[in-house]
Each structure stands twice: as C-alpha cells, then as structure tokens.
Design goal:
By secondary structure, this protein is an alpha/beta fold. The protein contains twelve helices and 14 strands.
Length: about 325
C-alpha cells in the first residue's frame, strides 16, 4: 500500500465554513493525502473524530510564515517529494493566505481570486452560484483532477469520549438524550447588511419553558452575559468546546438555530434542524443535509407558532 502524501490545508476562519469543507477534506484523504490542517484553535475539537492534525494558526504574519516553514521542513523529511509537487491547498479566498504560503516556500493551489494567482502554483476557478459546500468540494476535485458529485450528507462525527462527557453533563441536569430542545439563538455578522438573527427567539424560549420543555444552549464566550439575561430559564452549558457542542446537538430531540455556525454543525451531525431563515441566500448558505428544514419568509420571519409546531412534531 502506498504511503499517504502529506498535504497542508488552510481552513477558513469560520465554524460553518469548516463544517462545509469536511466532505472535501475527506475526498482529499480518500485520494491518498494525509492532511495537516491549519486553522483556528476550535477546529481541533470540532474535527477530533476525523483524526486530522490541526495546527493552530498564529495571528502575526511573521509567526504564520514561521509556522508554515516549520511544517514544510518537517514534511520534507517525511516525504522527499514534498517540494516537487503542489503541497498546500487554500480554502480561504484571501490574498494573505496565498502570500503566507508563498513566503514559506510552499507550492499552493486555491481559488483564482483577489489577484493572488501569481503567488500560487495553480489557481482554480471560483464558479458562481454554487452552494458553499459544493464550492469547497469542487476545489478539491480540481486539485485532484477528478469530477465527482458531493455527498448528500456531511456525516460529521463525535468521538466516544465526547459523547460520554456530554451524557454526563446532561445527566447532571436530569435531561435525557432525545428529550430536549437545543437552541442556537446568536448569530455573528450580517447578510446583505441585515441581521441574520430571528427576533422572536427570546419569546420562543419562554413559550417552550411555559410548555414544560427542557431547553439547552451553549453560549460562546462573548454571548454568556446576554444568554443569562435573555434566556434565564434555559440550561446553559458555558465554556464547553465544539466537540461537546456537536454531541449536544446530535443528541437533541430537535435543534432550532439561527443562520449561524452551530446550525451547520447540527446539520453536519445529522440532528433534526429547524432554522428560521433571514436574508442570506439559502442556495449558497443553507445548512447541508436531509434533516434540515428552513422556514424562510423574507423580508418577514417565521412566527413563534410555526416553529413551536415543528418542536411539537419532533418531541413527545
């Protein structure tokens, strides 16, 4: 059996994009590459079950280039042919991603955007109108020189250890797997300069509590105070990593999420997901998979009653 060739892959800086890139990463692995991922510190927990090495990307230019040079040095020892082929794939569109790779002496490939093609060994077209998962998938196909259809589901996994720790967290709150509503009410950033957050989320959570539903959420570090104020009756697991968050989403009876990264995780792990969808184009940004239901009435929003009906259908 031929030993897998090492390949540096630069991830994007957003949770949703990283989830949507998982099928492309698996495709690269299936075609004989051993992946050395470079990304944010949360990526290690999110992708732990895949077994890929995750190198946490520094912020400063000099440190980023030094990290890539050290990776290059180590991988050249492992694979004498490393410098004689394309050895880096860039998922980000930024000019800086290509510049970092070039300064480190890497032979990168990526989308031919931002005037950066001259910095790479090869640039590939960014085709318009594609779903983001398909865009990453096609970039991997272009890199490999193949043409295959993307999968219908992401199939994101959690480890046995993550699952066991999650079961312990739920048991401590007297919550059974499959019998709670997981809410993801925060969404950073905007789409078309418009807020992506369902404005009725606090009322929805109050109605769930009034109906005797167990409701769970995982606020991010910058969301903890707002979560305590807006969702006082919700069980909040603060400070857990994305691996535990993924398992909580997977074990939920139903997930109700904004257009945000955790919604993509929920779809990725196969949770039943309902999303009151706002201004973003779902053809490009919708969570991917057969368990997803989008409720989009833009420029209006789904009603609380409409989303509660989905919960009642999912839970006894």
């Amino acid at each position: 059996m031929t030993e897998a060739r090492p390949l540096i892959v630069r991830l994007r800086n957003f949770v949703g994009d990283t989830v949507l890139s998982v099928p492309a990463l698996r495709l690269l692995q299936a075609h004989g590459y051993r992946l050395e991922l470079v990304g944010k510190n949360w990526a290690a927990g999110l992708l732990e079950a895949e077994g890929w090495a995750v190198n946490v990307r520094p912020q400063a230019l000099g440190e980023r280039v030094a990290q890539l040079r050290e990776l290059r040095r180590r991988l050249r020892v492992e694979d004498p042919g490393f410098d004689r082929r394309s050895n880096t794939l860039l998922f980000p569109y930024a000019f800086s991603a290509a510049l970092d790779a070039r300064l480190a002496g890497l032979h990168a490939e990526g989308h031919a955007v931002e005037g950066r093609t001259w910095l790479m060994r090869r640039g590939h077209p960014r085709r318009p109108g594609r779903h983001t998962l398909v865009e990453y998938w096609e970039l991997a196909c272009d890199f490999l020189g193949i043409d295959e259809p993307p999968p219908s589901a992401i199939g994101l996994q959690v480890t046995a250890g993550q699952r066991e720790r999650t079961l312990a967290l739920l048991a401590a709150q007297g919550i059974a797997p499959g019998h709670y509503v997981m809410i993801c009410p925060f969404a950073n950033g905007k789409a078309e300069f418009l807020d992506r957050s369902w404005p009725a989320f606090p009322e929805f959570a109050r109605r769930l509590h009034g109906a005797g539903r167990r409701v769970v959420m995982v606020p991010g570090p910058a969301e903890i105070e707002a979560a305590r104020q807006l969702y006082p009756d919700v069980v909040r697991f603060e400070g857990v990593g994305l691996g535990i968050y993924s398992a909580l989403l997977q074990m939920a009876g139903i997930v109700v999420s904004n257009d945000t990264g955790p919604g993509h995780i929920a779809a990725g792990v196969g949770a039943r997901l309902v999303t009151p969808w706002g201004p973003a184009d779902p053809a490009i940004w919708a969570p991917w998979g057969p368990t997803v239901k989008l409720l989009q009435h833009w420029p209006g929003w789904a009603s609380v009653a409409e989303v509660l009906a989905e919960v009642d259908q999912a839970l006894p």
